[in-house]
C-alpha cells in the first residue's frame, strides 16, 4: 500500500480516534449531514442506478468527498473520506439502489439476520459480515467486496476492502478501490487474489424447499431421513433463464447451505446458451452431515469469464440417494460413483450422468490417486523427466507427486494425455498401500491369492495385479485381469473407493 509517512501504517482506518463523547457527537452530525445530502446537491447523485451497472463504473466517488484532503471529513456512511472503506461503502449503496439517503449500507447497521454490527476498519469487515448474516466465502462475484486481512499481500495493519469488477478464468479478480494507487486516489488492479469475499450487495435470492425423504419422487431439498446422513447423494436442480435475453454460460455452480453443508459445487463447465425461459438441470453430489433443510443458490460464469449472481432461477430441487441415468439404481456402483464426485476424485459430467465407460488418461489417473491420497505435499516438477505441463495446477501437482513417489512411471509426465491402463492402476494402488507382502500360509488373514491367467509370474506387474484383484481394487473375469486394457471411470471410482477404506 502507498502510505503517508505521517499517518498510521494502514490504508483503511474507518473513523477518527476521538474521545467517546466527541466521537458520538461527530457520528450524529455525520448522520444529519447524510440526510441533508439527499436534498442539497454536493456531488451525490439522487438517481438510483440499477445494481448491475453499479460495479466498475469508474471514479464516480462524490466530489464533496473527493475534493477535501484524505481523512478530513467523515462521509455519510460514517467512514473517513477517500479511504478504501468509504469508497466501498459508496459503491455498495449504489448496488443496493441507495446512492442518496436513507442509505442501505453504513458503518453501523443491522444485518440480514437482524444483528446490529459495526464494520470499522477494513480488516474487521469479514467478522462484521459474518455476525450480520451476510454470505462470506472464497467464491468471487462481480459486485462483491474483495476483503484483505490485515498484513495480507496488499494490506497494512488495518486490512483493505475493494469491489470486484470482473473475474478471470484462472480465478483471480479485477477490482476497483481507493487508497492504493496513491494516497486517497481511485485505482484499479487485475490478477488479484483477496483473502475472501463478502456478498453484501451481490447475493442472489436462493430457493428454500421443504423436508425430504430418500425415496419420494420428486424429492424436495433437504434431508430428513437418517440413512442419507453421511452418505454421498445427488442434488438435482432445474435452473431457468429468468431474463428476457439469451444467457451464454461457461460454468454453472450451486451453493448448498444447510443439512450440515456450506459448500459450492460446479455442475456444468461446458459452454451452453440458454434462450429466455430456457432451462438446464444442474446436478452435483454432496454428503449431508445432518438432517435439515437445504438452501440452494445458483451462480454462473459467462463466456467472458465474469461471474454473475441471479438470472438463473431454481424452479425445482431433487435430493435423493445416488442415482445416475447410466448406472443401476442399486448396488455398489452408484455409491462409488457418487463418492468419487463428492471427494473430487473424478470430475462431474455435464448432463448428470456418470459416463462409467469413458477412458481415463494418465493425467486423470494421477489426479484421482492424488486426491484419494489426501492431496499430500508435492514437488513443483515431476521427477526424472521434462514434463508436459497442462496449465492446470492440481493436475500438474498430481503428476509431480505420482512420478516422484513412484506411484506412476516417469512416462506419465512425458505423455500425460495417453490412456492409462489397468496394470498402471494396479501398480499405483499397490505402491500407495506400501507394497503389501504376498499371501503365504503363515498369513492366513491375508486375502486369498487369485488365479490370474493373463499375467505371467515373471511380469513385473504380477504382484501388484494379484494383490489388487485379491483386495477388490481390480476385477478379473474368468481369471483375466486385462492389464493392458484402458482404465475406465467406474472401475477407477471403485478402486479409489476401496483404497480410501470404503466397502
Primary descriptors:
alpha+beta
Describe this structure in words.
The protein has 503 residues and is of the alpha+beta class. Helices cover 22% and strands 20% of the residues. It has eleven helices and 17 strands. The strands form four sheets. Strands 3-8-4-5-6-7 form a six-stranded antiparallel β-sheet, covered by helices on one side. Strands 9, 11, 12, 13, 15 and 16 form a six-stranded antiparallel β-sheet that branches. Helix 5 packs across helix 11, helix 6 (362-372) packs parallel to helix 11 and helix 9 packs across helix 10. The protein is elongated and about 85 Å long. The two termini are 54 Å apart. 44% of the residues are buried. The model is unreliable at 1-10, 15-54, 204-227 and 439-445 (pLDDT under 50).
Quick structural overview:
The protein is α+β, with helices and mostly antiparallel strands. The protein has eleven helices and 17 strands. A six-stranded antiparallel beta sheet has the order 3-8-4-5-6-7, covered by helices on one side. Strands 9, 11, 12, 13, 15 and 16 form a six-stranded antiparallel beta sheet that branches. Strands 14-10-17 form a three-stranded antiparallel beta sheet.
Number of strands: 17
Average pLDDT, to the nearest integer? 74
What is the helix/strand order? HHHEEHEEEEEEEEEEEEEEEHHHHHHH
Low-confidence stretches: 1-10, 15-54, 204-227, 439-445
The helicity comes to 10-25%
Largest β sheet strand count, sense and barrel closure:
6 strands, antiparallel
Rg from alpha-carbon coordinates: 28 Å
Beta-strand content = 15-25%
Tally of helical segments: 11
Shape: elongated
The structure class reads alpha+beta
Across the major sheet, the strand order is: 3-8-4-5-6-7
Distance between the termini: 54 Å
Amino acid at each position: 500500500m502507498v502510505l503517508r509517512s505521517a499517518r498510521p501504517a494502514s490504508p483503511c482506518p474507518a473513523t477518527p480516534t476521538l474521545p467517546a463523547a466527541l466521537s458520538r457527537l461527530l457520528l450524529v452530525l455525520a448522520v444529519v449531514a447524510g440526510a441533508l445530502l439527499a436534498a442539497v446537491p454536493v456531488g451525490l447523485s439522487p438517481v438510483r442506478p440499477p445494481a448491475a451497472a453499479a460495479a466498475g463504473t469508474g471514479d464516480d466517488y462524490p466530489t464533496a468527498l473527493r475534493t477535501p484532503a484524505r481523512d478530513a471529513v467523515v462521509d455519510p456512511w460514517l467512514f473517513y473520506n477517500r479511504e478504501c472503506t468509504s469508497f466501498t461503502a459508496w459503491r455498495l449503496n449504489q448496488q443496493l439502489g441507495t446512492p442518496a439517503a436513507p442509505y442501505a449500507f453504513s458503518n453501523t447497521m443491522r444485518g440480514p439476520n437482524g444483528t446490529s454490527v459495526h464494520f470499522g476498519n477494513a480488516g474487521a469487515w469479514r467478522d462484521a459480515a459474518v455476525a450480520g448474516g451476510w454470505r462470506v466465502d472464497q467464491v468471487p462475484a462481480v459486485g462483491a467486496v474483495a476483503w484483505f486481512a490485515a498484513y495480507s499481500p496488499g494490506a497494512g495493519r488495518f486490512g483493505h476492502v475493494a469491489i470486484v469488477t470482473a473475474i478471470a478464468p484462472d480465478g483471480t479478480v479485477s477490482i476497483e478501490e481507493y487508497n492504493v494507487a496513491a494516497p486517497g486516489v481511485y485505482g484499479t488492479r487485475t490478477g488479484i487474489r483477496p483473502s475472501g469475499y463478502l456478498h453484501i450487495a451481490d447475493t442472489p435470492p436462493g430457493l428454500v424447499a421443504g423436508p425430504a425423504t430418500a425415496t419420494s419422487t420428486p424429492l424436495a431439498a433437504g434431508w430428513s431421513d437418517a440413512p442419507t446422513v453421511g452418505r454421498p447423494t445427488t442434488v438435482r436442480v432445474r435452473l431457468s433463464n429468468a431474463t428476457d435475453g439469451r444467457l451464454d454460460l461457461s460454468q454453472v455452480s450451486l451453493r448448498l447451505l444447510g443439512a450440515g453443508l456450506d459448500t459450492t459445487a460446479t455442475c456444468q463447465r461446458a459452454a451452453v446458451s440458454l434462450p429466455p425461459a430456457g432451462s438446464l438441470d444442474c446436478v452435483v453430489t454432496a454428503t449431508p452431515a445432518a438432517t435439515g433443510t437445504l438452501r440452494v443458490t445458483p451462480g454462473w460464469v459467462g463466456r467472458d469469464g465474469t461471474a454473475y449472481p441471479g438470472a438463473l432461477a431454481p424452479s425445482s430441487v431433487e435430493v435423493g440417494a445416488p442415482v445416475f441415468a447410466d448406472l443401476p439404481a442399486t448396488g455398489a456402483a452408484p455409491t462409488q460413483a457418487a463418492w468419487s464426485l463428492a471427494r473430487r476424485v473424478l470430475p462431474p459430467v455435464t448432463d448428470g450422468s456418470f459416463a462409467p465407460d469413458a477412458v481415463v488418461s494418465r493425467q486423470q489417473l494421477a489426479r484421482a490417486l492424488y486426491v484419494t491420497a489426501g492431496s499430500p505435499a508435492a514437488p513443483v516438477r515431476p521427477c526424472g523427466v521434462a514434463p508436459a505441463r497442462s496449465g492446470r495446477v492440481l493436475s500438474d501437482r498430481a503428476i509431480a507427486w505420482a512420478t516422484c513417489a513412484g506411484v506412476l512411471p516417469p512416462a506419465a509426465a512425458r505423455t500425460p494425455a495417453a490412456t492409462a491402463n489397468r496394470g498402471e492402476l494396479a501398480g499405483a494402488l499397490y505402491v500407495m498401500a506400501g507394497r503389501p507382502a504376498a499371501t503365504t500360509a503363515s498369513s492366513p488373514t491375508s486375502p486369498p491369492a487369485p488365479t490370474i491367467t493373463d499375467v505371467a509370474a515373471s511380469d513385473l506387474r504380477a504382484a501388484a495385479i494379484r494383490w489388487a484383484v485379491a483386495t477388490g481394487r481390480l476385477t478379473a473375469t474368468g481369471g483375466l485381469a486385462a492389464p493392458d486394457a484402458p482404465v475406465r471411470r467406474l472401475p477407477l471410482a471403485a478402486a479409489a473407493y476401496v483404497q480410501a477404506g470404503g466397502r
